Amino acid sequence: MVSEPSRPEGPLVISDVDASSVHLSWKPPLEDNGGPILGYLIEAKDVLHMDVRKTYVWSEGQSTECTVQDLETSHIYQFRVYAQNEAGRSEGLLNKSLVRIKAKSKKPPKPSKPTAEICSDDSVVLKWTVPENSENLNYVIERYEPKNDLWMQCNHGMVTTTSFMVTNLSCDKEYKFRVSSENENGVSRPSEATDPVKWKAIEGEPPSIIVFLKDCFVKSNDSALFSCEYKGTPPIHVNWTKDEIRVREGLCSVIRTDDSGKSELTLKEIDRTTMIL
């Protein structure tokens, strides 16, 4: 004599929750009680409705998995699975936890491989792109030093443009850089790293003075002219100092430096009270 099968075996596994569907899987009943299983009836109970609306889906055959479709986004469901043979329907296998139907969170797109341009002896400008219609993105910029074998974040605030200047670098080190995008759903995979960034060694001659300053004696209210000549490459920046304090150009002092390797300091209307600052 054939009777209803035992209920399907658990657990009732919920997976692949989408904006309007969910995938269920379970195990077959331990007993079919004399009649082969014809299929399974899946009950989806919408617990947000006052009348507790139920939807039924028939899955014919021996398969112990089913995708339930046409569910309402943002609604909460509870699922139950029944086994059926020719004698009738089993008791239901209940999923005790509630399931909210919602769209999968979509992480932001991965940025393109950045370009890196050295703009000073301690800074680099990075530029990258993201796919069109990528909105409300923040970017995370990281640098890599081969000697340390460690990626370190460069920015500590929001970066919403597709370029960034990395500062406080060392020109005697080699770096790589990469960028990740970030939104409310998380952080993207990092971009491909830049090509290695390394400062080129500067070729030239250290600066040296070839004509030194000479003492200058002038009468009160006359001007005093000091000059020196120097050499060195690349172009040299010259500072004049008195008592280790830098002399700045002003009403009483004029500084002229040219590319030929000569610099002059003129002090105007010298007297005992003249202050050189």
Report on the architecture of this protein.
- The protein is mainly β and 277 residues long.
- 0% of the residues lie in helices and 44% in strands.
- It has strands spanning 9-15, 22-27, 39-46, 53-60, 65-68, 76-85, 88-89, 93-94, 99-100, 115-120, 123-127, 138-145, 150-153, 163-166, 174-183, 186-187, 197-198, 205-211, 224-233, 241-242, 245-246, 253-257, 262-267.
- The model has no long low-confidence stretch (mean pLDDT 87).
- Keywords: Immunoglobulin domain.
- It comes from Trichonephila clavata.
- Residues 207-277 form the Ig-like domain.
- Pfam families: fn3, I-set.
Quickly list its features.
0% helix
Describe the structure concisely.
It comes from Trichonephila clavata (Joro spider). InterPro entries: FN3_dom, FN3_sf, Ig-like_dom, Ig-like_dom_sf, Ig-like_fold, Ig_I-set. The protein contains no helices and 23 strands.
- Number of DSSP E strands: 23
In whole angstroms, how far apart are the ends?
A: 114 Å
Globally, the shape reads rod-shaped
User: How much of the residues is beta strand, in percent?
Assistant: 35-45%
What percent of the residues sit in helical stretches (DSSP H or I)? under 10%
